[in-house]
Design a protein that fits this description.
about 90% helix, 2 helices, mainly alpha
Length: about 110
């Protein structure tokens, strides 16, 4: 632990000293690092916001699922009803067509 603390203090001191030097363009050495750090921080915040949005969407979907299942069940019932009724409706229409054609011929 003693060597870790010594290394940490040495690294911090060296970082402070290096940050005081300027490059040929007049910028401090730490500026690009700070920009990259800020960019990484913004990316992390963006990822956190996306994760929160995902959790919220998942919760809304979970809440809407029972109603969607009921709606799907009702639609299935309607389809079954019309599948049973359609042949008789078509037959009635054919009979009505025959009657109209018979009336028109007479």
């Amino acid at each position: 632990m003693k060597h870790f603390s010594l290394g940490l203090m040495t690294g911090a001191a060296l970082g402070i000293v290096l940050s005081m030097f300027k490059t040929k363009s007049g910028d401090r050495i730490g500026k690009p690092i700070k920009r990259e750090f800020n960019g990484a921080k913004e990316d992390a915040n963006s990822l956190l916001n996306a994760a929160n949005d995902f959790k919220q969407a998942k919760q809304e979907l979970t809440q809407a699922l029972p109603q969607a299942q009921k709606t799907i069940g009702a639609l299935q019932d309607e389809i079954k009803y019309y599948q049973k009724k359609m042949p008789s409706l078509i037959e009635n229409l054919k009979d009505a067509e025959k009657a109209i054609n018979h009336d028109l011929k007479n």
